[in-house]
Specification:
By secondary structure, this protein is of the alpha+beta class. The chain has 16 helices and 17 strands. The structure holds histidyl-adenosine monophosphate.
Length: 433
């Protein structure tokens, strides 16, 4: 006796038809929105050399989250925990030959060794859209529009979600003003990243360990900034920084419907090391969903890890787990429990099998989806099976129909029945509407 477990590996999901239908629906929407915005599809391999992630993905990903192993050829490889390094590698290999901006999208599955919890699994799918080589703020605005248009396409509004945004250049200028060493800057950025998740006392204590009282005061003032206006004043009074891209972007956004979704948030710095400019995360406004639905930002130097000249990039990753939690919390997803075939084709005698196979084939040629029931059943039973599956139209072929050389179709919703001859049923499409 084997005691093999029927459950999937921890933190991974089996996609039974209902879940797969939901996933297909969401992916189709992502593809549609990306295409509407002029993004082209791409994909890459599941495995990469681990060096690709060591270059710029950050300590947390490498030390705690990556799945890596040595292959039979003694190479240290990793299952992709994110898509951006693969994308950068691909863009680095061809960017000289293609016109800019490059706008690409993908929906890869990714693996991270995480503690499974609401909004966090070990395997998730992530909608990625990135733009390379666009003029300043243009790519940023476009990717933010994709996010907003995706979420609003499901019926979400600014009452449901917000895009919290910051600029790493402001954070860098703050660190300069505080005159921090590289080590202290690193510690402080990690503290900013988790500042909203810890208590005020813990924040205070952690800040004391890194900063002197004067530095701490400026730092805590920074963390309390609530909007773009306050941020502007803080920068004017404390930092040596001109031409702030964040404010240009916010200004540009006023000509789109993005503005009502954008909020300044000083705690957004992003955990991955490659971001250099605008950074953002999208959150559900319902506190039940604490994890970001989406995160991204601009990265100026990622191609340099391949010894290529800098090419500005900006993009985001939007996870399927957090997206579904968000949509379901706000009742923005329909029911996927039923298959969406158009016709349930049933016979009440084996003698009808020849006709039913022939009919099924012809209906499929007309692009009509058919579930062909193999065993003879009475019409009442056929209706029961079809309704349970959510199929609204049922075809019967029994002895009477064979005799008359016809088939009957019933609309379960209206109760209407209609007969069709095999020689001419082209107008069946109207009955199926
Ligand atoms: P990230 O913030 O690590 O960014 O992930 C982006 C989104 O993926 C998160 O906001 C969340 O929705 C989802 N996600 C991440 N980890 C998990 C998990 N363990 N379980 C479920 N969902 C998860 C990146 O990965 C960047 N590479 C995004 C990017 C693209 N930046 C620029 N271009």
């Amino acid at each position: 006796m084997s005691n093999l477990d029927k459950k999937p590996y921890k933190g991974c999901r089996d996609f039974f038809p209902e879940l797969k239908r939901k996933q297909n629906f969401i992916f189709a929407r992502m593809q549609k929105i990306a295409t509407l915005h002029g993004f082209e599809p791409y994909d890459g391999p599941m495995l990469e050399m681990i060096e690709l992630y060591k270059a710029k993905s950050g300590e947390e990903l490498i030390n705690d989250q990556i799945y890596s192993f040595v292959d039979r050829g003694n190479r240290e490889v990793a299952i992709r925990p994110e898509m951006t390094p693969t994308l950068a590698r691909m863009v680095a290999s061809i960017h000289r030959e293609i016109s800019k901006p490059i706008r690409w999208f993908s929906i890869p599955n990714l693996m991270r060794y995480e503690k499974p919890q609401r909004g966090r699994l070990r395997e998730h799918w992530q909608f990625n859209c990135d733009v390379f080589g666009a003029p300043k703020s243009f790519g940023e605005l476009e990717v933010l529009q994709v996010i907003k248009n995706l979420l609003t396409s499901f019926g979400a509004t600014s009452e449901h979600f917000a895009i919290y945004i910051n600029d790493r250049k402001i954070v860098d200028a703050l660190f300069n003003a505080l005159n921090l060493s590289e080590e202290k800057s690193y510690k402080l950025i990690k503290l900013i990243d988790r500042s909203k998740k810890i208590s005020l006392e813990s924040l205070d204590q952690a800040a004391d360990e890194i900063l002197d009282p004067k530095q701490k005061k400026i730092f805590l003032n920074y963390l309390q900034l609530k909007n773009f206006h306050e941020a502007k004043i803080f920068i004017e009074e404390n930092l040596n920084l001109a031409d702030i891209e964040l404010f240009d972007l916010v200004e540009m956004a006023t000509s789109t419907s993005l503005s009502e979704f954008l909020s300044f948030d000083p705690s957004i710095v992003r955990g991955l090391d490659y971001y250099t400019g605008i950074v953002f995360e999208v959150f559900d406004l319902n506190p039940e969903n604490k994890r970001a639905i989406c995160g991204g930002g601009s990265y100026a130097n990622l191609l340099q890890i391949f010894n290529e000249p800098a090419l500005s990039g900006v993009g985001f990753g939007l996870g399927d787990v957090t997206l579904v939690d968000f949509l379901e919390t706000h009742n923005l997803l329909s029911d996927f429990s039923k298959a969406s075939f158009e016709v349930f084709l049933s016979i009440s005698t084996d003698q009808a099998l020849n006709s039913s196979f022939h009919l099924a084939e012809n209906l499929r040629k007309m692009n009509i989806s058919v579930e062909h029931h193999p065993n003879p059943v009475k019409p009442k039973k056929a209706i029961q099976i079809a309704s349970k599956k959510g199929i609204q139209k049922v075809i019967f072929i029994g002895e009477e129909e064979i005799g008359k050389n016809i088939f009957k179709i019933k609309d379960l919703e209206s109760g209407t029945e209609k007969e069709f001859s095999y020689t001419d049923f082209s107008h069946i499409k109207e009955f199926l509407k």
